[in-house]
Design a protein that fits this description.
240 residues; mainly beta; five-stranded mixed sheet; five-stranded antiparallel sheet; 22 strands
Length: 240
């Protein structure tokens, strides 16, 4: 830690003050370095984002300080991206960026050098990834039969999936069916249903006009929304 030389103050009978230097001012301070604080700890990174951590290091005044941060049990090594010294010359600040691929336990090593001497201090911290919303997709969407007679039942089917550690079916997701008639530029709501085991869903309506259908999932607190590819169906009238 930083050493402060103290003076010895002696009072004389005449009231005058005599100030002399103590032995602490004459002796060279022993080299010392300490990681004082890591902020924040743990380092929380949003999924797909980045966060910066600050490392505060105390060292003997006049020492040169370096910081290395590396994942524990990993071969990767990352150096500080930005380094700045606090004006008093004894305290150092290092900033290091982390992303969502850096999750796990890390080690910080501060090294101080002065007058041929070296001292080190280590500290451990965690990088955590804050779960963001998972992407979703609607696969295999189909409207059948095609063609279909006007007034007959038209069935919709598909599968709702979310990507967390691979694409898996979403159960209980609300899927809405929309229709755009031939020659129209707008989509109209038709019906809705909930996905079941494996993300499978189905719904039906009465065929009225030829046009295009699509399935839409709005998303929720944990998943992003998505929509299916469109499927065109020809509707024809009864013939006498």
């Amino acid at each position: 830690m930083k050493k402060i030389a103290a003076g010895l103050i002696v009072a004389t009978m005449g009231g005058a003050l005599l100030v002399t230097g103590g032995t602490a001012a004459q002796a060279r301070a022993a080299l010392d370095v300490q990681i004082e604080d890591i902020n924040p700890d743990p380092v929380v990174v949003a999924k797909g984002g980045e966060a910066t951590a600050s490392f505060y290091v105390d060292a003997t005044q006049g020492a040169h300080v370096e910081l290395k941060v590396e994942p524990v049990g990993d071969v990767r090594t990352f150096a500080a991206k930005s380094v700045s010294a606090i004006p008093d010359g004894a305290r150092w600040k290092f900033t290091v960026p982390f992303n969502s691929g850096d999750e796990g336990k890390w080690r910080a090593t501060a090294t101080a050098k002065k007058d041929g001497e070296t001292d080190r201090d280590k500290a451990y911290f965690e990088v955590e990834v804050q779960g963001g919303k998972a992407d979703t997709r609607i696969t295999g969407f189909k409207a059948s039969p095609d063609p279909v007679k006007k007034g007959r039942s038209l069935w919709f089917s598909g599968r709702l999936q979310a990507n967390e550690d691979g694409w898996d079916g979403v159960r209980g997701g609300e899927v809405e069916i929309y229709f755009r008639a031939n020659g129209s530029s707008g989509w109209k709501y038709v019906t809705s249903t909930e996905s079941r085991w494996g993300g499978k869903f189905s719904a039906k309506t009465r065929a009225s006009k030829s046009g295009t259908f699509k399935a839409v999932y709005e998303g929720d607190d944990d998943t992003n929304g998505s929509e299916s590819r469109s499927d065109w169906v020809r509707v024809y009238s009864w013939r006498r």
